[in-house]
Amino acid sequence: MPFEIPQDLDPALYPVSFLIGEWAGVGLGQYPTIEDFRFGQEVVFSYTPGKTFLDYESKSWLIDEDGEKLRPLAREHGYWRPQEDKQLEVVLTHPTGIVEIWVGSVDSGKIELNTDAVVRTATSKEYSAGSRLYGLVKGDLYWTFDMAAMGHGMQNHLAAQLKRVN
């Protein structure tokens, strides 16, 4: 599906404009504390004319071998805030009691992010750091998420391939 930069998009958002739209796909999850799993995901990046951030929402669910939804998994909501010199700030919230501040860079369809701060409620699972990589490859959005949690060092937890659906 071809993408065109919206005419009313603030120029500050041009470096991340390739993200705007609705994406859907599947991925794999793993971590030493859980069994490997397959998941489906829907992601929406949207903007408000005149504002210099993208609104972000992600929903995922556990799927079986046939791609059928079994149960809800994670949700995220946040804001992607491009800065000068190809820098990027991202603020994410999770209903599990975690708020993250990510910092990184964006360059020609590639985004690298690392947590700058992780704040948890008393009832959330132990999670201390993360690293994300996003890349636009032949029109698809690939991403991977490494994390340090539950007493384990940084290692891969999630990876997915998403296709633009709108």
Explain how this protein is built.
This protein is mostly beta strands and 166 residues long. The protein is built from no helices and 10 strands. Helix content is 0%, strand content 67%. Strands 1-2-3-4-5-6-7-8-9-10 form a 10-stranded antiparallel beta barrel. The chain is globular and about 45 Å long.
Number of strands: 10
Shape, principal axes of CA atoms: globular
How many helices does DSSP assign?
A: 0
| Straight-line N-to-C gap | 8 Å
Low-pLDDT runs: none
Strand content: over 45%
> Rounded to an integer, what's the Rg over CA atoms?
16 Å
Return the structural class.
Answer: mainly beta
What strand order characterises the main sheet? 1-2-3-4-5-6-7-8-9-10
The secondary-structure element order is EEEEEEEEEE
Largest sheet: 10 strands, antiparallel, barrel
Topology diagram in text:
Layout: E1 21-31, E2 34-47, E3 54-63, E4 69-82, E5 87-94, E6 98-107, E7 110-120, E8 127-137, E9 140-149, E10 152-164
Antiparallel strand pairs: 1-2, 1-10, 2-3, 3-4, 4-5, 5-6, 6-7, 7-8, 8-9, 9-10
GO molecular function: heme binding; metal ion binding; peroxynitrite isomerase activity
Protein name: Peroxynitrite isomerase
Motif (GXWXGXG): 21-27
Which terms would index this structure?
166 residues, mainly beta, ten-stranded antiparallel β-barrel, 10 strands, 67% strand, globular
Brief account:
The chain has strands at 21-31, 34-47, 54-63, 69-82, 87-94, 98-107, 110-120, 127-137, 140-149, 152-164. By secondary structure, the chain is an all-beta fold.
